[in-house]
Amino acid sequence: MISQILSNPAVIAAFLSAIAAIAAAVATWRAPVSAARIGERLRRQGEGELESRRFRMNVFAYIMQGRAEIWSEETVRALNSIDVAFNHSVSVREAWAELYQALNTAPMQNHVVDERIRKLLREMAIDLGISDTLRLDDFGRIYFPTALAEERQARALERQATLQRLAGRGVAAQTNENAALELWPPKPD
Length: 189
What we know:
80% of the residues lie in helices and 0% in strands. By secondary structure, the protein is mainly α.
């Protein structure tokens, strides 16, 4: 019986037509679901890339804005975020490692630190795709008015005086504590 069915071309054509119709129905039913999944995946990927770029741009902006005071709290936070923000960029991370080494070399050489900051900013700009609008001398041009420099110096002197006062109290407190220990317990008569 199967051999008779297989020998009749009309039956084979009808069978294949039925399979094609079923496949078309399944594809028609699944296409919107698949399209929605693909669309959602692309949207998430796009949002992730946008958020990553925004984070990298913020790190770049904080360092660019704080390059006159590389030790400010915001700039330090941005510097410490480089390895995460630019994890895919070897050149940025190498420039950061060179700056880190220059910052931790005693005695610190300001001209080397300045050159390494400019190099880091240039590598970040290349990674962000904005290097064609910024020149190396743009990274070195810093406006830092005398009033801000004087204010910073006054704060540094105040901090130094406070530390010296606290260190003096620490010695006095230690001396008082040692004297109290000598008095207790009382010596027998």
